[in-house]
Every structure is written in structure tokens, then in C-alpha cells.
Amino acid sequence: MGSAELKAWRAAERRRLIAAREALSRETLEALRRRIDGHLECGFPGLARGVLALCWPIRNEYDARHLARTLRTRGALTALPVVLARGRPLLFREWHPGVAMAEGALGIRYPIDSRELTPDNLLLPMNGWDLAGYRLGYGGGFFDRTLGGMKAKPAVIGVSLEQARIETIDPQSWDWPVDYVVTERGVYRRSAGRLNFLDPTPDQARNSR
User: Is residue 33 within 8 Å of 61, Cβ to Cβ?
Assistant: First the structure.
């Protein structure tokens, strides 16, 4: 698939997947969010330590703010990404209720003057995902560029819905795979270039960095 064809195909898939997610009712989304929260809390106790970066939710994405509130009571610091300019890596600024915010592209809110933090863990929403661990985002390449340039990389946990799984995103050299995917079904861990589903048994709790 040529670059122009790939770009057009990804754009069409993005529209299709977002439309399917936006068609879900508020009640369904809340139930799915609670299930995902439960898998993250049980499967990744390390999220309560260090710095957790999350994304401001848009277009019916998983809303990590509820989990972030819980984790802050256990000692975590939480941060949101900030876009400096197109083509540049993101930075992460501390976020909690009360921090001064602004609204950027796509209606995404971000902190404007809080301290910069380096995330230990990153919750990354995905419009689509495949079993090789690659993510279909919004096409700007911000997270791929940021992760590719970080010396100390966070554990990257993609968060999405089972209905958003596709056969492949046809990954390119610049695409960055996630370490885990969490859906309403449970947790997938990437190993040897493929995601493997982890049975949610008590002795399989995973500690993230």
C-alpha cells in the first residue's frame, strides 16, 4: 500500500471507528469505563506510584479522569500532554483539579503553567488497535514522535474497546507499539511482537513501572 493510499485508508478507518464509538449510549460508555477502570486497578497496581500521564477524553474516548482521581489518593501524580507545535514532541505537565487549563486543537484541554513531569506510565486512548500492538490515533503522529525520542520511556498502556480491534493498521517504521492494551474484556500484553490476552486470575496482577 502506497503512502497516499495508506493515509486515505487510515482516515476512513478512523472515521468508521469513531462513528461506532460515538453511537454508544452514555449508559453503555459508563459501564465500559467502569470495567476498564477495574482491569487497570487490579492489573496495574504500580499506577498508584510515580507519574501517570493520561489524555483529556474527546469523542466518547475512555475517560481516565475517574481512575486518576482514585490513584491520586494513593500517592500518584497525574499529568496531561501538551502540544508545543506541529512536528515537535509533546511535553507533560502536572494536572489535577484546580490547575489552570486552556483548550487546544480538537477541543482537547491541557495545563498551561504547572510543572513539567516525566511519566512513568502512560494511558493512551486508541481509535483502533491491532493484535501486533499498534494504535490508530488521530493522524498527527505526536505520541509516536514523543515516545521515539524519550530516553526513559514510560510503560505505554493503550486503552480502547473490543469493537475497535482491526486486523492490522499496516504499521510503518514511525509507528510505535504499546506495551499493553486494556479493553472492557481485560488486559493484553505485548510479547515477541504480538498481544497476548492475560486471564484475569488473582495471581496474574501485573506491576507496571
Answer: no
Residue holding cell 486552556?
102
Architecture of domain 3-204: 3-Layer(aba) Sandwich (3.40)
- Over residues 160-192, the pLDDT tens digits come to 999 999 999 999 999 999 999 999 999 999 999
- The cell for 173 is 517504521
Q: Report if pTM > 0.90.
A: yes
Select from 151, 171, 193, 147 the least CA-distant residue to 53.
Answer: 147
